[in-house]
Amino acid sequence: MGTFLKIAWRNVWRNKTRTLLTLGVLFISVFLAIVMTSEEDGTYGKIIEDVIDMTGHLQIQDKEYQDNRSINQGLILDSTLLNKIRNTAHVRQVTAHLESFALASCREMTRGVVVVGIVPSEEESFAGFKQKYLKQTKAQGKYLEDQDDGVFLGEKLAAYLRIGINDTLVLISQGYHGASAAGLFPVRGTIRLPSIELESRIIYMSRDAAEKFYGATGLVTSVLIKADDENNLKQVRKELTPVLPPGTCLRSWQEIQPEIVQLIDGKLAGGKFVKGIFYMILTFIIFSTMVMMMYERRKEFGIMAAIGMQKSSLSIVVFLEIIMISILGTIIGLAAGYFLASWLFIHPIALKGEMAKSIEEYGFEPFIFFSKNVEIFYWQPVVVFCLTLVIYIFPLISIRRLKIINAIRV
Amino acid sequence: MKIIEVKEVVKVYDEKSANPVTAVNGISLQFEQGEFTAIVGPSGSGKTTLLNMIGGLDEPTSGQILVQDVDIWKLSSSGLTDFRLHNIGFIFQAYNLIPVLTARENVEFILQLQGKSRSEREKRGLELLRAVGLEEKKNNRPSKLSGGQQQRVAVARALASRPKFILADEPTANLDSKSAGNLLDIMEKLNIEEQITFIFSTHDPRVMNKARRVILIEDGKITKDETK
User: Fold this and answer.
1) Which of A304, A308, A310 sits opposite B98 (nearest CB)?
2) CA–CA separation, A8 vs A328, rounded Å?
């Protein structure tokens, strides 16, 4: 094997220009694929993180609630259930929402809104509400107390209703089991959210106030559960399923927010397509190199076989050459990609001007985020190795079919 | 002692075409150990084809090639490669050394394929390079050697495995007169001293003069077989 390695290594550098060209293509492909994947993982990871902060990994809901989001499809939240959930392994945080619809009005402006009853202190740690949405997004006013009788609402909604802090908001709705619900709520503050649609239609109040408003004492529409790690969700689900109250079910964030999943899947598919093109170009160039190499060295292979080298040994030498080029190109691309992705992970790209404005319009932070998830870095060598194996089929077949007498006559 | 027996060997090219070419037409021959034989004849007479068939490189259309009673064309493909490795040495017109290996590595390569130990390889490699007068060039790659020097390395490589015989196809064709003479002297010396059988296919009168047996082939048939 030592001699084979030596022959292969020297053959790699026999045609330096060609080897450097192949290495360059490998480097660019691996580097771009890593940076792209890191950006996708970082950006979509951030979106998913935001969504999970809003919805939890899992929710306990009435079975009908997903299709009929009525307060009548609520569930009684007793302390026994809550304790069981909290004591389940890998459950990190639990909170519950009482959510329904209402007509919000201020002077002559009216709009249909979503009212979410939260436990402000729990929500703060669950979603980082105070930190994330009230402070960082320069929202105005103050955060709610747990027994607060006021509300805070989406900044867009406030603008539409032309309502300000300390103004009074009128809410009219249908309460639990058809009771009429109406109330006056002082505005404590406004909030920016990671969705322009949500920000235009959402009102938060304490769950106590929501229970009173809807006449739904002790009722919640969903129990939000956050696990310590996404990989443990299966186990959490398995442990919680037997303790669920009758008529309720567990739903994942993907089931609750299918449009987000669809959006990410669509974007990722686009990214995969671009990466597919990189790898196709890569495959084509390495394949072309192989074809040229096989053509140029046909006589040499014939001579080596004539003097007693088995075709299988010849195949090993060629395989080693391909692997050496692949490993070299991949390592260089990987190192450069890792370095850049790591740097961008710490220093996300801040968007400026119109681009930043349009991103902010959608409620997202005007940054391109990057991830340095280890999977990004080991998948690229795996892909390149698999491609190399596929490309290797060509020289393998060529060597197997090599007619020594024809080869040495070239 | 008989080492090679060629029995009624025929080689037809483009057999299935409208114009098949019969390169070798029913040749029977025997070679004894220690022969220094030249197969001569005009271009296209079939001498190289005969050499390639004896060397297990080109399969006869019919007939048999027996090397020490082994019908080499009945061996499997890998069996035949193995047979060539252990029994036959090749010297080609265009030297055909492995360009990425040094002179010494080229010689030792055959021994490596045979699975010989490192010390054995090094000892034999140096011994052969010394025999062909290239010890001081042992670390040079083929591109740093002259044509004559490359062919001498090729001779050393052919001898490395201690083959039963060496087939040399026009070994002096690309060499100047001095290099050709030098190479022939080396091969003759090895033939005499070590009883190594050499079979040449050649046009070169210098080879014919050195050869102790000359076989003339014309139109795929032996027209003269003369031992001096």
Assistant:
1) A304
2) 13
Q: Does B87 touch chain A (CB under 8 A)?
A: no
Report the residue of chain B nearest A14, measured CA to CA.
B100
Chain B stretch 196-225, residues whose beta carbon is closer than 8 A to a beta carbon of chain A = none
Mutation pick from A307, A403, A406 vs chain B, by most beta carbons of B within 10 Å, is A307
Q: Could you give the CA distance from residue B112 to residue A63 in angstroms, rounded to a whole number?
A: 74
Q: Which residue among A7, A303, A405 sits closest to B96, beta carbon to beta carbon?
A: A303
The domain limits of chain B are 2-227
Q: What is the mean pLDDT of each run of 10 residues along chain A (410 residues)?
A: 86 88 88 90 86 90 89 87 90 93 94 94 80 53 84 90 92 90 92 77 94 92 92 91 90 88 86 87 86 88 93 92 90 93 92 77 75 86 85 90 86
Q: What is the pLDDT along chain B (228 residues), one digit of tens a residue?
A: 889 999 999 999 988 888 889 999 999 999 999 999 999 999 889 999 999 999 999 999 999 999 988 999 999 999 999 999 999 999 988 888 999 999 999 999 999 999 999 999 999 999 889 888 888 999 999 999 998 899 899 989 998 888 989 999 988 888 788 888 888 888 898 889 888 899 999 988 888 998 999 999 999 999 999 888
Q: Which residue of A has its CA nearest to B58?
A: A405
| Interchain proximity B77–A311, CB inside 8 Å | yes
Q: What is the pLDDT of residue A51?
A: 84
- Evaluated on CA atoms A157, A162, A166, A168, the torsion sign reads negative
Q: What is the interface pTM, i.e. ipTM, of the complex?
A: 0.91
Cβ contacts (< 8 Å) between A309 and chain B: which residues? 81, 85, 113
Asked if A310 and B90 come within 8 Å (Cβ–Cβ), the reply is: no
A-chain CB neighbours of B114 within 8 Å are 308
Q: Which CATH superfamily is domain B2-227 in?
A: P-loop containing nucleotide triphosphate hydrolases (3.40.50.300)
| Beta-carbon separation of A308 and B85 below 8 A | yes
Give B38-90 as a 3 state SS string: EEECCCCCCHHHHHHHHCCCCCCCEEEEEECCEEHHHCCHHHHHHHHHHHEEE
A156 alpha-carbon distance from chain centroid: 26
Token couple for B2: 């008989």
What does the domain layout of chain A look like in residue ranges?
2-50+261-409, 64-246
Its pTM stands at 0.74
A-B CB pairs within 8 A amount to 60
Taking an 8 Å cut-off on Cβ atoms, the answer to whether B113 and A313 are in contact is yes
How far apart (Å, rounded) are the C-alpha atoms in residues A372 and A343?
9
Paired strand residues for B165: B88, B197
Which residues of chain A have a CB within 8 Å of the CB of B99? 14, 300
Report the alpha-carbon distance of residue B214 to residue B36 in Å, rounded: 9
